[in-house]
Amino acid sequence: MTDLSSQAPQPQAIYLKDYQVPAWTVESTDLHFELGEEKTTVTSLLKLQRNPLCQQQSPVLVLHGHNSLELLSIQLNGNDLLSYQRDDEQLSITDVPDSIELRTVVQIEPQNNTALEGLYKSDGMFCTQCEAEGFRRITFYPDRPDVMAVFSTTIVADKVRYPVLLSNGNPVEQGETDDGRHFVRWEDPFPKPAYLFALVAGDLAHIEDSFITMSGREVKLQIFAESKDLDKLQYAMESLQKSMRWDEEVYGREYDLDIYMIVAVDFFNMGAMENKGLNIFNTSCVLAHPQTTTDAGFQRVEGVVAHEYFHNWSGNRVTCRDWFQLSLKEGFTVFRDAEFSADMNSRTVKRVEDVTLLRTAQFAEDAGPMAHPIRPASFIEISNFYTLTVYEKGAEVVRMIHTLLGPELFRKGSDLYFERHDGQAVTTDDFVQAMEDASGRDLGQFRLWYSQAGTPVLDVTDNYDSETGRYALHVQQRCPATPEATEKSPFHIPLALGLLDEAGDDLPLAEGQTTRVLDLTKAQQSFVFENLPCRPVPSLLRGFSAPVRVNYPYSIEQLQFLIAHDSDGFNRWDAAQTLMTDVMEALVEDCQAGRELVLEPALVTAVQAVLSNDTLDPAMVACTLKLPTEAYLAERAEVVDVDAIHTVREFVRTSLAVQLKEPFQAVYDANCQSESYSPDAASIARRSLKSLALNYLMATQDAQVLSQVQQQFAEADNMTDQLAALAAVVHSPSEQLGQQLLDQFYHRWMNESLVVNQWLTVQASSPQPGALQRVLALLEHEAFDMRNPNRVRALLGGFCGQNPTAFHAADGSGYRFLAEQVIVLNALNPQIASRLLTPLTRWRKYDAARQLLMKEALQQILDSGELSKDVFEVVSKSLA
Ligand code: B3K
Ligand code: ZN
Fold this sequence. Notes:
The chain is 41% helix and 20% strand.
């Protein structure tokens, strides 16, 4: 236990169980913005009504309002109001009639808003971010998602600096004011919570196109950015059109307004925001051009554009009752965007990527001090709950419902959900209820996924009776303790499985199917399969049918057999991962015991077999041969031995490269494309295979490979190839060449902000000695700006999150460095500060000496003075 008593008033948690319907509803919200360089004035006219559904009627009207609002005047029903109370978070007015018009005028300073919540400036343009609780930094308001109103917004600004003035809905009026400024008035006919409000004002260029909806309406599509980035918007436009079509075809959802706008901004805390009719995007999730954007970048743009578009139904038309329900919109929308990306590209590769993220980072979150159910029961700061758990595990929970119901009944359920709750603010339970009502399936036990945190573990054993042909599979489920509960009730887990016969073919299971979904509902269960001709090899958790860990004592031969024969592409990949992981975990033990490291020959054979099989999908070959990351091995370890993991992974990479140099070289040569860049799945697969081969070949430190990589760097016509070459050299011991390429790269791309981010990350994540010194020097570089979250993520996130050996240096220098940066960021941008802290929260996983140093770093933050709620919550829960 840590003594927190020296901290003056501690932020308090709020609880789901305390939810109450709003005491007041808002019929209409009329906003007037006078944007200025020093001061911005916001006038708000609200029509408020006492809510008859609220049980606890009080004479007091309470509105949220951040302490940065400078209140100039309040009028109630046209009369100046002189009596009201204000504290740091709220404005309270007593003796208010049941139906009122409230006019407030406040002044704010967006140019000084470094938290990037509410109204702020990004590179000279005004923009907003209101989710979750940013609107209260703009004006006084019942800033909660279950208060929905129609908004009209007038923006007045200097014509030259801010020729483009945007808000939600449709533009209804524009003109000039007497003093040479101009204005635009917007009206959004769809009632919405304040978190979906948006405003943009700036000198922006745009591209325009249109979309004809399924009922034949034409929607104008516009994407705005700084004029220098105009040539990087086309891919986002195409992605938007594809998303709109897909949502009509797969979910029957049509877009509702006549205009859909996206704006790219450089200063943004997250990826993007689904504001009604006016999405605001981090440039990193909307700009795409072959010369400056990697394949991963193109796919991110497609996925995020789709995600924000899909929110128009799963989030905006049907929104969340309260922020505990965040996964209602995020889990469902991530599931929707994952399926979209799977349909547009390679389904198996998408699944492999998502599951890798989940198993590496979400499982770690679920095992740490911030673990929470996908519907948390309490929080201090909601911004801390935009997590992998709420998003990615939330999506897995929706996917399990899809698996349990099948596609037709799932669609019936989603139709019912949208129809029943259109225009409402609802709960995750309403979602599950719609799925139950449409399908007739009992999801009672399944609901535990919403209230219990932690990653369930399945221990699976089996036996086969060759006399009777009876095969039995025994499954035990358990779930480790998490902060909200030590004892867990059994989950309802859909376990998809197949059984392979001796030839590697699927045995027919129920109703001739080759994959069967078993319903696990008890702590221990056995499943019996009759009349099997031979002892099968089980292919468990096909397609990763549930977010669980599975233990089954596979032999190396069985894993090789599955890699070669499993009809489920995901499980072929997974068998290869398991083989590699098993081999590396055994080597880590050897390393710790001081034994000589010897590579398991079966791994060489398996890799060789995959490399030389040209009937395989190149995309899957690349995924399959990627060694599990150090972060993944760390997540699985009881006690993380950072150095042994690094040594072993390098040993395996180098040994495979030396023993299989020729096939790797052949793969590299075969995938050097000459055709011009295209971000389609087949071309991406070839490039990723080429990068994979390069990565192995670099481990040989062969002079010929070095000249090859230099050539790739010099001749690349796209960022994917160039950055792969740069990273390969910078992360290798060729220090001088690395510096030379880094300098060339910077001089070529210094005006491309997103490329500079990549340049920072390559350096920060390099395992070569001296990383901390490099990062310290880069903090002073002209390109670095602590107020820009993309820069912070690139440099500090790259070091603390992607450079385990340097961050976990035994002298604690990495930890102290992070603590110092978090303290600086806490004052500037609490959300970013709190996110950056994540690696320190995992202190329990390390050896005693590191645990001490990590805790000291956390304590250093706690003792540093007044902390934001964001940072306080993470630090205090980590030390508790
Ligand atoms: N809904 C936004 C999240 C914004 C959160 C800011 N604290 C992005 C998304 O999930 O689409
Ligand atoms: Zn979202």
